[in-house]
Amino acid sequence: AQSVTQLDSHVSVSEGTPVLLRCNYSSSYSPSLFWYVQHPNKGLQLLLKYTSAATLVKGINGFEAEFKKSETSFHLTKPSAHMSDAAEYFCVVSDPTGGSYIPTFGRGTSLIVHP
Amino acid sequence: DAGVTQSPTHLIKTRGQQVTLRCSPKSGHDTVSWYQQALGQGPQFIFQYYEEEERQRGNFPDRFSGHQFPNYSSELNVNALLLGDSALYLCASSFFASDRRYNEQFFGPGTRLTVL
């Protein structure tokens, strides 16, 4: 069975400093992995996805993530945080468990950006 | 181009009642998925509709049912509401994947359901 663990419920950074949001996954297959962002009162937006191509994935708004199979991790990074990055971030894993690709979302990491 | 729209935005019901939530997919999309997001949790997959049929289903009881119309819009119905059904219900649309792989989905803003 697939599962995903977001290691931090909250991450606090200062504007202009790097961002690291951690995600570990468990899967018996070669999974697809995604990061979504959720701003208040808005729908979730896809930041980036990994689907067994390049292990370093670049997304929108300067975010990127690296798939590390040996560590079963898919951490999200950004070199320099902006105030507009403050939001809830979700890591998602999907594999063909049971013949379907039902996605499993992590519990989310709240990113707080201080001026 | 309108994105995914959902109605209503908020809803208050009492235990035992029934509720219907509505979703219109992004233009050009033919597949609709529904999620339940409890407070402080990540979204949980309820089911997915394509060609007016339920294609995949998560671990939700039969009280949760849905429908997709020929114009690809969708409804989520929940019968015999419980206090624990209070949550944000999200609709997401995408293109159908013949290999059933999880595709990029576009999410609506959600319907906040409160059960008293």
Short descriptors:
heterodimer; A: 115 residues; mainly beta; 4-stranded antiparallel beta sheet; 52% strand; B: 116 residues; 7-stranded mixed beta sheet; 0% helix; globular
What is Rg of chain A? 14 Å
The average pLDDT value of chain B, as a whole number, equals 93
The greatest interface between two protein chains, and residues involved on each side, is: A-B, 25 and 24 residues
Q: Percent helix among the residues of chain A?
A: under 10%
| Uncertain residue ranges of chain B | none
Order of helices and strands of chain B: EEEEEEEEEEE
| Assembly state of the chains shown | heterodimer
Radius of gyration of chain B: 13 Å
Q: Largest sheet of chain A at a glance?
A: 6 strands, mixed
Distance between the termini of chain B: 37 Å
Helices of chain A, by number, come to: 0
Residues in β-strands, percent of chain A: over 45%
Cα distance, first to last residue of chain A?
Answer: 41 Å
Q: What would you call the shape of chain B?
A: globular
Order of helices and strands of chain A: EEEEEEEEEEEE
Uncertain spans of chain A: none
Shape of chain A: globular
Strand content range of chain B: over 45%
Mean pLDDT across residues of chain A:
92
Number of strands of chain A: 12
